[in-house]
Amino acid sequence: MSKPTEPARMAARPAPLELAGAETQPLAPVRLARAKSAYTTRRVPLAEAAALLLTGDVRPRAGDLVLAEVVRPRQHTRLELGTGRRAQLYPGDEIVVCYGDRYAPDQFEARVPKDLGPCHLVAAGGVAALVRSRHGRMKPATEIRPLGLLADAGGRRLNLADWSLAAPVPGGVRPRPFTVAVLGTAMNAGKTTTAGHLVRGLVRAGLRVGAAKVTGTGAGGDAWFLTDTGAHHVYDFTDAGAASTYRLPPERVDAILDTLTGRLAADEAEVVVLEVADGLFQPETAALLSSPRFAAAVDGIVFAAGDAMGAMGGVLHLEHYDLPVLAVSGALTASPLARREAEAAIGLPVLDLEALAAADVLDRLQAQLPGREPELAVAL
Fold it and tell me: How many angstroms from the chain centroid is the CA of residue 355?
């Protein structure tokens, strides 16, 4: 995956924003070095870029980097660092995280606040937001107190988008890798496990595999897992400049898809596995499924579900988008009975983890293509 030590590329910076009520204060390098910097911030060269704190009457934006104090650790008692290590949080700790919205039916619904007032750590990977609702099994979110937005010496706020991966430069024709997208009914349907074991099977077949998580909330667990299963290059939406994809406009999500798939093609991946977060009804997932760019980028879908009814509903739903579902997998395959139910109801292969990780998995998936060859060449 993209390493924290990879040289960062800063996009062209806009002129300083009009911040009539903003104040600035120096940010000592030693103070910044002591702060625990989250996974979401790993592409930003903080020591070189951050010089000031913006305080006062400032409205945060999604992707803005913020220095915050931990007030009360609750649901998230550890912060995932850029290295993947989870650092214990204590009251009084200073952390560097990104503002972002969150959509997680099994955890938190949260929005970027309108000011620098107290808010919450809503994802262990380092996302700050104001909680609107939470799942009944979740503890209240960890409470944090923003101390100021990180800014450069000219007073410009630092935003994750400024250090996005560069999209491949147009020119020339490169074969597009055969690309499988993993979608599911909801959180915890088994999408990441499905994607990782699929990567494992493709690697066992001797293929150079690239993987990417296209949507979701900033955290490194899925990307690290895909790396561990053998993918040669792994990216996620944070590499494309978004701390979270919730509430991003469809064109921005399309651009993230283009950047990540283009990078994997440039990395000479022979097969690509894409993970799309949450369920089919999540707004950004629904928009992505309707996008012509998604249809052009993906050859087929493996659908993850927790039970046979969810699998059947998902497959029927995807038929409306003319996107071929090649197989079903996910949490339901832990039960032989649920697997047989799904096979009988759907008429598609239902692949458990052993089948996904087998060297013949690509042959089994391609056998389900509806009488068409994948489009193999696109301009980059």
Answer: 26
Query: Chain-centre distance of CA 219, in angstroms?
Result: 7
Q: For strands 300-304 and 325-329, give the pairing.
A: parallel
Q: Write down the pTM of the prediction.
A: 0.91
Output the pLDDT for position 262.
94
Cβ–Cβ < 8 Å for 348, 325: yes
- Asked whether the beta carbons of 7 and 241 are under 8 A apart, the reply is no
Identity of the amino acid at 183? L
Instruction: Give residue-wise pLDDT tens across range 289-298.
Output: 999 999 999 9
Yes or no: say if 61 and 112 are a contact pair by the CB < 8 Å rule: yes
Instruction: For residue 64, give every residue at least 6 positions away whose Cβ sits within 8 Å of its Cβ, in sequence order, or none.
Output: 98, 99, 149, 150, 157, 158, 159, 160
Rounded CA-CA distance 226/213 in Å is: 9
User: Which of 312, 365, 306 has its CA nearest to residue 338?
Assistant: 306
> What's the pLDDT at 12?
45
Spell out the residues 6+ positions from residue 7 whose beta carbon is closer than 8 angstroms to its own. Answer: none
